[in-house]
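Following the same procedure, backbone shapes were mapped to integers, as reproduced here:
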Amino acid sequence: MSRVLVITTSLRVRSNSDILAEKVVAGAKEVGHDVELLSLKGKTVNFCRGCLACQKTQKCVIKDDAIEIAEKVKNADTLVFVSPIYYYEMSGQLKTLLDRLNSLYPSDYQFRNVYMLTTAAEDEDFVCEKAVSGLNGWVDCFEKAEFKGSLFCGGINDMGEAAGRETELQEAYEFGKTLV
């Protein structure tokens, strides 16, 4: 089975996206995947400087936690990015991380399948479209990778509220079981 890396990007304690990510992990493990859950909480991921040194060295010149995260991303078969929706877009933390993964572009990266889980207070279907489109733009830069799907869990706002949302918890679990 696949090596799956699930990266949660909410910095909120007991975040709804983290609660749902744990269900994705459980579903993926049930079908036999080797899964690692990585949170950006407590991590330092600075802004990309745009120097492009990484295109020659395949290493970022900024010494922070993004270097270790990039190595984990590079060696995973399947990636699941988890983000709360802020103003109809992915979290700033996720966008900053994606920018910092630029060093992977010229590398022999392993990942082939990319997924996204998003949460938001709003529950209309269109709420996640820009976040999904943004991640698709990143995936499009990696010719061996493919965006495989997303799950949006809307109408969830208060801290920890997702823990009591049986439908969304089950959807996240089933989503985890479909990862390839």
